[in-house]
Design a protein that fits this description.
Elements: H1 7-24, H2 28-34, H3 39-47, H4 66-77, H5 83-102, H6 105-116, E1 122-125, E2 141-145, E3 148-159, E4 166-172, E5 181-187, E6 193-198, E7 209-220, E8 224-225, H7 231-267, E9 269-270, E10 273-274, H8 279-307, H9 313-336, H10 348-355, H11 366-376
Parallel strand pairs: 1-4
Antiparallel strand pairs: 2-3, 3-7, 4-5, 5-8, 6-7, 9-10
Bound molecules: flavin-adenine dinucleotide.
The site of flavin-adenine dinucleotide (FAD) has 21 residues, from strand 1, strand 3 and helix 11.
Amino acid sequence: MLRNQSEEHELFRQSVRNFVEKEITPNVLTWESEGAVPREIFEKAGELGYLGLRIGEDVGGSGLDFRYTGIFVQEMMRCGSIGAPVALLAHAEFATKVVDRAGSADLRERIVRPAAAGKMIGSLGVTEPGAGSDVAALRTKAVRDGDDYVINGSKLFITNGTISDFVTTAVRTGGEGYGGISLIVVPTDTPGFSRGRRLRKIGTHASDTGEIFYDDCRVPAANLVGEENGGFRLIMEGFVGERLVLSFLACAHTRLMWEEARRYGHERHAFGRPLLANQVWTHRLADVRTALEAAEALTERALDLHLRGEPCDGEVSMAKLFTCEIAVDAARTCAQIFGGMSHMEECLMGRLYRDSLALTIGAGSSEMMREIIARNEGLAVQGAGQ
Ligand SMILES: Cc1cc2nc3c(=O)[nH]c(=O)nc-3n(C[C@H](O)[C@H](O)[C@H](O)COP(=O)(O)OP(=O)(O)OC[C@H]3O[C@@H](n4cnc5c(N)ncnc54)[C@H](O)[C@@H]3O)c2cc1C
């Protein structure tokens, strides 16, 4: 469990816990069936300051450190749905934080201030039909025309994609490869911007996921985030935060599954005794608990480096890889003890099971994490498997 380091952290945890118990958990099944978290929840979370935790105070945020984000993720995950926290975090941490960090004063005022207040919903648009893991291959093009950029292309699998008010969009403004990429904020009421249907997923149902299109979509050049052709570095820096978020999420998710499996193993009887009277189950759940302890320690270590401003790319990748892989393994073990119930949508464990499958893909797949670790550790051989 991520440690509170001060009384402020504990007070913050209690405040999020109350919010989740009152506003999130009672409604999460409705949102799972509707496919999205409603706008009012973004507004309520914004009013309470949860969407601006790491946003600069000069534009309405709280300027806090990442430990608060970790606590927010842990408490949100108690609602039993990965989709709900992902919807809020994709907005606050993925789409908005990078604009706060690198955007102009004007962009921060126009976009970051209302986003932190929950009055605008954001998406981060990087993935395309032809470019996912290989971000440097993206093809959505932005051409400078006077004081505007004209954007053509499309994005796929975008969280909040059918409900957002702006998309922090990765575009090609220069030549091939990572050196020709920029980030531009595209308001979704811009002529030429359109959305496809809400995508039907096998899990994380409470977060909206969409396909979006840019057809001669003209936005002011002032919407560029940072420097032209400097977008790849911003995306990679943003990934550190995204991967920490996923690490916290995977740990909290695993802890919930483990608690559910332990409860059910005590309650459910077969052959005249509780399931946990069989050593096979006590041992398997002991393994899950041990893996969780290691996952939380790795996440804490990556967080600690990040908070101290030290290079932590490798440690964050290790945390993301390990926490998400053990979550999927734990899901299989913890679901198995539920027998047929694990296959039911009405069963919390069933929903946690299918939600877990997105963890090893989103914010960089397990294979990409291994690539980063291999490169950092001097394992990569030039020309092999690249
Ligand atoms: C629920 C959900 C929400 C998402 N939200 C967003 C969002 O908000 N914004 C956004 O931009 N994207 C989003 N994504 C997209 C996500 O980031 C991509 O799916 C992910 O980066 C993988 O890209 P891909 O699906 O194109 O797979 P590909 O890149 O086609 O990879 C397919 C498989 O091959 C593996 N692979 C690829 N290259 C190599 C290699 N060199 N060596 C070994 N294995 C390799 C991958 O690890 C993967 O297992 C979301 C995805 C999901 C499922």
